[in-house]
Amino acid sequence: AILPVASSCYGRMYVVKAFTNGESNSLNLVTDGTDTIDGQDDPTIPVTTPHTFTLQSDGDQWWVIQGQLNP
Fold it and tell me: pLDDT per residue over 5-16, tens digit each?
């Protein structure tokens, strides 16, 4: 998933649902430029069980405000 530039969408939230078909999968979150998600640059999230998390922009970076990237 490619996120927009955090500075262009202050306060915007995205709910991400990561699911698996029983195999080992991963979800790649791509940020723009120097944007990060909870301090991580373009994290790859292993998905072994379904889970949901919410991201929010503070106008500078992206933050996980509900759930966890790696439960």
Answer: 999 999 999 999
